[in-house]
Specification:
The complex is a heterodimer of chains A (488) and B (336). Chain A has helices spanning 2-19, 23-49, 54-61, 64-71, 77-102, 106-110, 112-117, 120-129, 131-138, 142-173, 177-198, 205-209, 219-222, 227-252, 254-270, 272-299, 304-332, 344-358, 378-397, 430-435, 453-463; strands at residues 340-343, 365-368, 373-376, 406-413, 416-423, 467-472, 478-485. Chain A is of the alpha+beta class and 488 residues long. In chain B, the strands form two sheets. Chain B has a six-stranded mixed β-sheet with strand order 2-1-3-10-4-11, sandwiched between helices. A five-stranded mixed β-sheet of chain B has the order 7-6-8-5-9, sandwiched between helices. The chains are: A alpha+beta (488), B alpha/beta (336).
């Protein structure tokens, strides 16, 4: 069974690395590989040494035939020991690299040398444990051998404790729930790998080098757990590995994922079929409505008051068409933004100004927790925020029973500056959530909303190297987050 | 998803509890019956013949002892397992005796003088005599009696370890290395020697064995316990030894039958175990008592210490009187 778990970790980490090539997956791949290498050595060693119950043998090797093959595998004891050394000493290194990578503690980000230093101790230990060097150093020097063994255990434990502390601190510090949830799942997976590592992490490679003459007890003899506990640990690992790898795929790359969605959206947008036909249809509807007005004007040329009423309506329709065309033009042209440091409060102010033009009698509750700059194109970004505010206000307007509220907040979370627009309006369903950013998707009156708003917002945020996130429950309001890279 | 996870968690928890309670149940039931002794053995005739014979003829049962066998590949691991308390009694070959001398274990019964170690050359690779070993690659399990036999063999023609290339391997890998032609010669012990000869036929040439150096290097095999165990469990140990003695006596007259029993126990071909009948000088309880009385046994253990010292595996200050680690009283009490 242990062999199956090793194979599973091996294959799934390769798969994740192929699907997502970034630092997180590389480090996790490194951890899984180290475990596989270490356990290969340990299983070779146990098969050759024996001394475990038949039941445990079957758990470790599946059946006696496999065990015999492993037992008679041709390998010299130094190679066997060094295999264990490689896996055993690289696992904590990759773990700490990963913890540093996830950690947003400013001190760690500033002091890059700490990260560089991470590989020094494992590398040094691997050099010391290199069989010819190890034999040379420890020949007739048992106390030095003891010092090396204890020293190694100490640094390994330190690496693991620091990593766990950093990961837990990070999980605790993430303020946005959807990030935190995924991060906790990834952390659980990492902790389950550590639990697996702890089964045999104390196996000193020197004991394998001195296969028949090591004096201070066989490590695995002291740590043999009952078979049900072994099986339990394997189950935990498989479950957390599946959940962890899945979360990792989602967490690691909002950017990759978003860009993929972007491609889909872009394709949909480019496809003349639906999008354009909706747009053309809407324009045609309005022009047909205008034709009716023109006819009425012709029939009522004597009544100036009526003519005035019709021309007013025509003028309004005309403005509306122009606005829509401009909107369409903007979202097609959204790839040209000019990013400069601008004050966040200026962006917010400009968005509120536009909002007040549209809804003069509505009030947005403002919660500006930070001041400072963001790297942005002020016009585009404030237009995006205005779009979100408009959507929120419209969602609130549909309410009948409760008093509506729209809240605009700005704050910093880890590496992001977040602009949050929250309403207690009608919300949207999970199914709609998937389509909400597609162009021409709208649930509102089609004369005034042609479904380009969120598509536009998303394009703009992407141009700002950020992302758009949202959470909603039907009937319970929605929250939109504009995540922009923090400007330092 | 949450529901699914909690169901799994509950199932696993229940599973663990079931596992634990099962363990507790068994030990409680056994406590009321015979004294359970966990015996560590190596899967060969020399290690198992007395204990298996004793089990089959009901000698241990008669003494109120229930034997549970646990398989190991070598002596040092058995001593480590004794230390950890996962076994009670163990059998070791000559190479591991350095550990009881150093205080890691106590010997409570002599087993036999072995003849299991051999140095084997591959004629295909040009090793037909001991002299041919010069410049060749030899697989050896460092720290075992086979290494000592190799040292003695090389010394016989004026060679040292510097004149050959040694590959330090475990016993199983040595078999594979020799059969696959990865090395020119090996120093190992039975039943690995038999496996090599069966596979290679005439290409495997036996260059030397324990018998050749019997006067210089008595190849002693013994039964042992961890330090302090004998003091606390003297009664159990004496009864266990009585069971061993009965097995010893039965074995001497029924070598082949016992070989088949051993084969059955370790699930190998009976012929392979019958081939190992020559691996030792099998004695009876009476012969053992004579060896104790006339001091022969003590002399063997003394000589063994000197050999370890000469081979550099034992320091001068670590040498100590034999009676400090060989419990002659258990052996004589069990004979009463």
């Amino acid at each position: 069974m242990l062999i199956i778990l090793m194979l599973f970790l091996f294959l799934s980490s390769i798969l994740v690395l192929i699907l997502k090539r970034n630092r997180e997956t590389f480090y996790i791949f490194g951890m899984c590989m180290s475990l596989v290498i270490m356990f290969s050595g340990i299983l070779l060693y146990i098969a050759k040494k024996g001394g475990i119950s038949r039941e445990l043998q079957e758990f470790l090797f599946l059946n006696l035939e496999i065990k015999m093959h492993i037992q008679y595998y041709l390998i010299d004891v130094y190679d066997m020991g060094y295999i264990i050394a490689i896996g055993r000493h690289l696992f904590p290194m990759f773990l700490l690299f990963l913890a540093f990578h996830f950690s947003m503690i400013p001190w760690l980000q500033r002091n890059y040398w700490v990260k560089r230093f991470t590989f020094v101790i494992p590398l040094f230990t691997l050099i010391i444990y290199y069989p010819p060097i190890f034999s040379y150093l420890t020949n007739n020097n048992e106390s030095l051998q003891q010092i090396i063994a204890v020293g190694t255990i100490i640094w390994i434990l330190l690496y693991i404790i620091i990593s766990i502390a950093l990961l837990l601190f990070e999980a605790y510090s993430i303020e946005m729930i959807f990030f935190q949830r995924k991060f906790i799942l990834i952390t659980s997976f990492i902790l389950s790998l550590i639990l697996f590592y702890f089964l045999y992490f104390g196996q000193d490679p020197a004991q394998v080098y001195q296969f028949y003459s090591f004096k201070t007890g066989i490590y695995y003899m002291n740590t043999v757990l009952s078979v049900p506990i072994y099986i339990f640990i394997v189950f935990i690992n498989v479950i957390f590995a599946i959940i962890g790898f899945t979360s990792l795929m989602k967490y690691t790359n909002d950017i990759v994922q978003s860009s993929k969605e972007e491609v889909i959206i872009q394709r949909k947008f480019d496809a003349i079929s639906t999008g354009t036909s909706v747009f053309v249809h809407s324009i045609k509807n309005q022009l047909l409505a205008n034709r009716v007005i023109f006819k009425r004007i012709n029939n009522n040329l004597d009544d100036l008051e009526k003519v005035k009423e019709y021309t007013d309506r025509l003028s309004k329709q005309n403005e509306n068409i122009l606005t829509r065309i401009e909107e369409l033009y903007r979202s097609v042209k959204a790839n040209s933004v000019y990013l400069v440091p601008v004050s966040l409060s200026d962006v917010v102010e400009s968005a509120l100004e536009r909002f007040n033009q549209k809804f003069p009698d509505k009030v947005v509750e403002l919660n500006l927790m930070i001041k400072g700059n963001v790297l942005a194109d002020k016009n585009h970004l404030s237009e995006a925020v205005y779009n979100l505010l408009t959507n929120a206000q419209e969602a609130v307007n549909s309410l009948t029973s409760v008093e509506g509220s729209v809240v605009l907040s700005c704050y910093n979370v880890r590496q992001y500056t977040v602009i949050e627009v929250k309403d207690n309006g009608i919300g949207f369903s999970k199914e709609d959530a998937k389509k909400i950013c597609e162009p021409y998707f709208t649930k509102k009156n089609s004369n005034y909303n042609w479904g380009m708003g969120l598509h536009y917002v998303r394009s703009i945020v992407k141009e700002h190297f950020g992302s758009l996130r949202y959470e909603s429950k039907e009937g319970n309001g929605s929250t939109f987050y504009l995540l922009l890279p923090k400007y330092k | 998803m949450r529901k699914f996870l909690s169901i799994i968690a509950i199932a696993l928890f229940g599973f663990m509890l079931a596992g634990c309670s099962e363990d507790e149940g068994t030990s409680e039931a056994e406590g009321k019956e015979a004294d359970k002794v966990k015996v560590a053995y190596m899967p060969n005739y020399a290690s198992l013949n007395t204990v298996v014979a004793g089990m089959k003829i009901g000698a241990f049962e008669e003494q109120g002892i229930e034997v549970e066998l646990v398989e190991f590949a070598d002596g040092p691991t058995i001593i480590a397992a004794l230390e950890s308390g996962s076994i009670d009694v163990g059998y070791i070959g000559p190479g591991a005796h350095v550990l009881p001398i150093q205080g890691e274990a106590e010997i409570f019964a002599f087993s036999q003088l072995g003849n299991a170690d051999e140095v084997i050359g591959s004629s295909e690779k040009g090793v037909k005599t001991i002299e041919d070993l010069k410049g060749k690659t030899i697989a050896v399990a460092t720290g075992t009696s086979s290494e000592t036999i190799l040292d003695l063999t090389l010394a016989e023609v004026g060679l040292t370890k510097d004149d050959v290339t040694l590959m330090n391997m475990d016993a199983s890998a040595i078999v594979t290395a020799m059969i696959s032609g990865s090395v020119d010669a090996v120093a190992t012990w039975s039943p690995n020697t038999n496996a090599i000869k069966n596979e290679m036929g005439d290409d495997a040439v036996m260059l030397s064995n324990n018998a050749r150096y019997a006067d210089q290097f008595p190849s002693i095999a013994s039964w042992l316990v961890k330090p302090g165990y004998a003091e606390k469990n003297e009664d159990v140990l004496v009864r266990f030894t009585k069971g061993l003695y009965k097995g010893m006596d039965y074995r001497v007259d029924n070598l082949e039958e016992v070989a088949k029993w051993v084969a059955e126990e370790i699930a190998v071909d009976p012929d392979a175990v019958v081939q190992q009948i020559g691996d030792g000088e099998w004695i009876t309880q009476d012969q053992l008592m004579t060896m104790i009385e006339d001091g022969t046994l003590e002399a063997y253990y003394k000589k063994q210490q000197e050999n370890f010292k000469d081979a550099g595996r034992l320091k001068e200050e670590e040498m100590r009187p034999v009676e400090e680690y060989v419990l002659f009283n258990i052996m004589t009490d069990a004979a009463k």
